[in-house]
Write a structure and sequence with these properties.
This protein has helices at residues 6-19, 27-34, 38-51; strands at 54-57, 64-67. 11% of the residues are buried. The chain has a single domain, classed as Winged helix-like DNA-binding domain superfamily/Winged helix DNA-binding domain (Arc Repressor Mutant, subunit A, Orthogonal Bundle), CATH 1.10.10.10. By secondary structure, the protein is mainly alpha-helical.
Length: 80
């Protein structure tokens, strides 16, 4: 995997977890799933959070990440 593919692989990993109904995961787990070192993954996670592609939850060692889903994709309680 090249560094150019890393952001899309991180987003794909988080999207796959979301589609399966799994909880958000931390940077260590993401790094092991995409096969990259944690400092590199952390840099890309920060960029993806700033872009709004993913969401960061928690702080410190309890920080987890999940895919950002546009509001328009959520079912409205008023839809029939």
């Amino acid at each position: 995997m090249t560094r150019r593919e890393l952001p899309s692989n991180v987003v794909a990993c988080l999207a796959d977890r979301s589609n399966k109904g799994l909880k958000p995961i931390g940077a260590d787990a993401i790094a092991s799933r995409v096969g990259e070192k944690r400092p590199t993954v952390n840099r890309y996670l920060a960029k993806l959070v700033m872009q709004g592609s993913i969401l960061r939850e928690g702080a410190g060692p309890a920080t987890t990440y999940r895919i950002s889903v546009p509001i328009s994709e959520h079912a409205s309680p008023w839809s029939t």
